[in-house]
Design brief:
CATH superfamily: Glycogen Phosphorylase B
Structural class: alpha/beta
Number of domains: 1
Helix content: 25-40%
Radius of gyration: 16 Å
Order of helices and strands: EHEHEHEHEHHH
CATH topology: Rossmann fold
CATH class: Alpha Beta
Number of helices: 7
Largest sheet: 5 strands, parallel
């Protein structure tokens, strides 16, 4: 079943809006989102001397506030606090602008949590890396990772490439139109 991304709201931005070598994570701050995987990879990139900036956008639910504090502590322990910014949640209307400022979008949620933000980021022209095997089946193995080391390898490659400039071929298959068509077929 298609995810159902509103491709009219999430579109490729104008030229020169992206910060080079920038990484974005945009999700609720929760243990099941596995944001520590991204921080671990960023820590390794930093020890290798690879330049980057990263933004972690999202808020925790009250039950996950301790996890959020752990992420902040982890960034300090990995000595990446000068490269990583934690920012509060944004609305759906604000999200395209946030995507447009970043070159790479990373989603560490496991398979079975097919986050719509993966497709929204792709629609906005981000190079998307996701831990989901479901996404790997759609976008290819180079767009996925199963460990911190694989994420480091993928990030090194895409940060060196620069921003993505085209819309991925899988995107239309997960648009609102595709979802409406699939639901109509299922009803009839």
């Amino acid at each position: 079943m298609p995810v159902g991304v509103d491709l009219t709201g999430f579109t490729l931005p104008g030229a020169n809006t992206r910060t080079p070598r920038s990484v974005l994570s945009l999700s609720r701050i929760a243990p099941e989102k596995r944001i520590e995987t991204l921080l671990g990879a960023l820590g390794i990139l930093n020890t290798k001397g690879i330049e980057f900036t990263a933004t972690i956008v999202g808020d925790p639910l009250p039950k996950d506030e301790a996890y959020a504090r752990t992420l902040h502590s982890m960034s300090e322990k990995l000595d990446i606090q000068d490269h990583v910014t934690f920012a509060p949640s944004v609305t759906k209307d604000e999200a395209p602008e946030v995507f447009a400022r970043h070159a790479v979008f990373v989603n560490c949620s496991p398979s079975g949590m097919f986050d719509k933000t993966i497709f929204e980021a792709a629609a906005c022209g981000n190079h998307v890396l996701a831990a989901s095997l479901d996404f790997a089946r759609i976008a290819g193995e180079d767009a996925s990772f199963s460990s911190v080391d694989e994420l480091v390898e993928r990030l090194e490659k895409v940060l060196a490439q620069g921003p993505v400039v085209n819309e991925p071929s899988y995107l239309q298959a997960h648009s609102l139109t595709a979802l409406a068509d699939a639901l109509e077929q299922a009803i009839h």
